[in-house]
Amino acid sequence: MTAAPMIVLSQPVVAVTPKSAGRWRRLPLKAKVGAVVLGFFVLAAVIGPLVMPYDPSFSNPAPSLALHAPDAAHLLGTTQSGQDVLSQLLVGIRLTLELALFVGVAATALSVVVGVTAAFLGGLWDDLLSLTSNVFLVIPSLPLLILLLGYLPQKGQLATIVVLSGLGWPWGARVIRAQTLTIRNRDFIAASRETGERTWRIIAFEIVPNEISLIAANFVNTVLYAIGTSVALAFIGLADLNSWSLGTILYWAQSQQALQLGAWWWFVPPGLAVALIGTALVLLNSGIDELGNPRLRDAARGVMIDGHRQRPADPTPVWPQAGPIAPAGPITRALRPFTRSSLLDSRNGGRP
Amino acid sequence: MAFVLRRLVFYLVAAWVALTVNFFIPRAVPGNAVEAIMGKFPTLQPAAAKALSAMLGVGHPGSLWHQYVNYLRDVFTFNFGTDLLQFPASVTSLLGETIPWTLALVGTATVIAFLAGTALGIIGGWRHGGWLDRGLPALMFLQAIPYFFLALVLIELVAERFHLFPTGQGYDGGLIPGWNASFIGSAIYHSLLPALTIVITSLAGWMLQMRNVMITTIGEDYVVAAQAKGLSSRRVVFTYAARNALLPQLQGFGLALGFVVSGAIIMEIVFSYPGIGLLLLNAVSASDFPMMQAIFLVITFAVLLANLVVDLVLVFADPRVRAKEAS
To answer: How far is B179 from chain A (nearest CA, A)?
Structure first.
């Protein structure tokens, strides 16, 4: 029984990454940019409430300070009632990221539990759990969330977290189930089963650690879903409207006619923050994806042969000895493969 | 055929789950909807509470099974009760007025975005590493923008500053709705900016998805074989690579539809477009529960129906689906 971990260690499924030296350097540029932008917002969330210049809810009674365009005193201007937009933004980033983090952890945990259980139990349970996740995948979640939150008497942060987590697991469960089904047939699982490992031990120490990259990607996606959905829900007023999140700032901006009053500084910063956080997460995810899937990797990695860049997906080139051809513009070059009839009819194998 | 039947049964199950969830939410959630409504409308007489509870089924008249049967009968006869906000009007008639607007706007714009995004994705996947790839971070940024925020920005930039488009509403206020050229022209003119919003934000998603599937497909042996045979690039791209890459893309279309439609409906609010979104916003802010429930059902059924259509297209387009059933 004690021999089992040895077997596992000697047959790792996922290639063990070399020691962390240079790991950051090997990350695709996308992932680096994503991590830096995300880090900036996390930093803002952590220290924001400490450095914010004003109380975000403090309404300055001076009429001259209402709807004031950005200046030195109020870097992002003020709202209709003289509240400081920058302070609201700093608190809002924290509240929104906090919510997304909780939802990400809870929904991902649910996905893992449901996905692994379905794959391991098999039979009727698998059918039932798969059917449930497929049904909740096709039922659009936003209208259902609106209905649930609409009926709930308290629409605070906790209620939103619970409801979002409760509806955020099906996609992850589906992916993790599929992955578990392939892993459970590998030799090292059979080996540990032969040595008498208990099922829960196999799941907790051998299956789940091997799915960690998938779970991480799923976590990032869930965080993305949580941010987008919670902001949309708050925007239509289904949130605690006395607290400041990116969504509630947008709600007040919309309901107090920021647009009609031309107060762009009121609604652009929170919306831009949502978009930038989202972009950072997508970049991070697709960067991680490229690490695992070499085909998606940047074509800049292609090799140079005889002065022509060969991309990984290109067929073997045949270079004729012909003279120079007329230079083509970017549009012509992009369209050429669709118009020329052969791959071999131009100097560089049909591919400019 | 067996595939179609299985999918049909699946969508029936999904529809039943949606109906049942919709039935149980008001009964399972703590708190009293009637009290919430009475609080929102101080003008209501105390006697109205009784009528309201009967209407919402909160007072639980009859057994649960009895209520459930009644509820299903009401849904299938399109009887969603009376709207609380615009009191004498029925929910069904209000929905009937707004659904065509949303369907025309969101439906058309989503299909355009899907087709354009897929076409761009084919080029982007084939020209992997080319000029389209250099714009990827920008596309990811567009994809991450909430619909309603882009709507706010577009109104500010295009409509308020340069007066190129109207800032909102579905048609010119001076016109009377009808099937005449000036009204239809005005409606189309007013829908251009909202449609643009949907296309800009959802195009990038379809494109990225198609591009990634294309890249994977192009690496397959049969594509290399087709190139080695000396087939024209056009033939290799469209008949060999794109046709196969299109199938995961179509499946993705069905699954992502719910998100796109929900996002687009919330965006309507910013434009004061006379579609479901505005109805939903008003229903939420006034705790108008019958309306919220009906809207949930309408959106869900529309998405389920669209998914069914996608599945039928898949059977038609993909011999592999048919072959799997035959074996």
So the answer is: 31
Contact across the interface for A152 and B31, Cβ inside 8 Å: yes
- Tokens representing A125 are 């349970």
Q: Pull the structure tokens for residue A87.
A: 């302070």
**Locus of tokens 């009191």:** B87
Q: Are A100 and A226 in contact (CB under 8 A)?
A: yes
- The pTM for the full model equals 0.79
pLDDT for A20: 52
Are A224 and A102 in contact by the 8 Å Cβ rule? The answer is: no
As a whole number of Å, the end-to-end CA separation of chain B is: 12
pLDDT digits (tens, 9 = 90+) for B204-243: 888 888 888 888 888 888 888 988 888 888 888 888 888 8
Mutation site, A151, A158, A281, A333, interface B, largest B CB count within 10 A: A151
Contact B116, A231 (CB under 8 A): no
Interface probe, candidates A129, A138, A298, A346, chain B, greatest B C-beta count within 10 A: A138
| Residue B35 in this model has a pLDDT that exceeds 50 | yes
What is the spatial distance between Cα A133 and Cα A169, in angstroms, rounded to a whole number? 8
| Of A299 and B110, more confident | B110
pLDDT of residue B286: 79
Long-range (24+ apart) CB contacts under 8 A made by A121-129 are A126/A177, A129/A173, A129/A177
Question: In the numeric block, which tokens belong to residue A31?
Answer: 């992932």
The set of residues, in sequence order, having a beta carbon less than 8 Å from that of A26 and lying 6+ positions away, is A291
pLDDT tens per residue across span B173-201: 666 767 777 777 777 888 888 888 889 88
CA distance A57 to A231: 19
Nearest one of A291, A106, A117 to A208, comparing CA atoms: A117
Q: B146 and A228 in contact by Cβ < 8 A?
A: yes
Q: What is the pLDDT of residues A213-231, one digit of tens each?
A: 888 888 998 999 999 899 9
Evaluated on CA atoms A250, A253, A255, A258, the torsion sign reads: negative
